Structures are given as structure tokens and as C-alpha cells.
Amino acid sequence: SLEKALGWRDEDVAFYVATDTTEVESLPSFQDLRRRGKLAFLPAGHQDASIIHLDRSQISLAVEGVVDTWAQWLTLAASDAAVLSASNFGVLAAEAGRLRTAFL
After folding, report:
1. Is the dihedral of CA 47, 91, 14, 32 positive or negative?
2. Cβ distance 95 to 81 under 8 Å?
3. DSSP secondary structure letter of residue 56
């Protein structure tokens, strides 16, 4: 686990999930973190306008979701550590925030 790898106590760790799909909510690991009160997650709102791709979403949807998108990006940039996918969104946030610990 991330906590063990970094020598952090479980009670001192919380997770924030930035994702482009609400389907992660069905994953057992996601459900476990939520059950344990360890998870912050920006739920989809405005008919999923909080989940957009600045470069691929329709402009009407992007206008509604751009604030949520930047809020998620800045949250990642300000994190103590990150577990990232091979996506420029998270990787650039980690670089901009100068994260010392990032797992890809």
C-alpha cells in the first residue's frame, strides 16, 4: 500500500480520486476506502459536467465543467503523493506541484 511504502500511519492518510468516469465507484478498492472514510471524490454533477476533457468535450459541456477540472488538477498538484495513470492530466499536475512521490 502507499501508506506502507512511504512509512505513513493509516490514520494520517486520505485519498483523493480524480477520474474521467464514475464507474470507479463500483470497484472494491474504491468502496473499501469510502467505507473506511479515507476517500474524497468529486461526484459527477450537472449530468457529468464535472468530468470533462478540455481537448475533447463539447464546448457547452466544457464550459460547465472547466472549474471542476482545474480544481481537480490543482488538488493533485498540491498532494503529498500521487498514484497516476499514463495520462498527461495527472502527470503534468504532479510536475507542476513538484511532487516528490508519484507512482505511475
Report:
1. positive
2. no
3. T
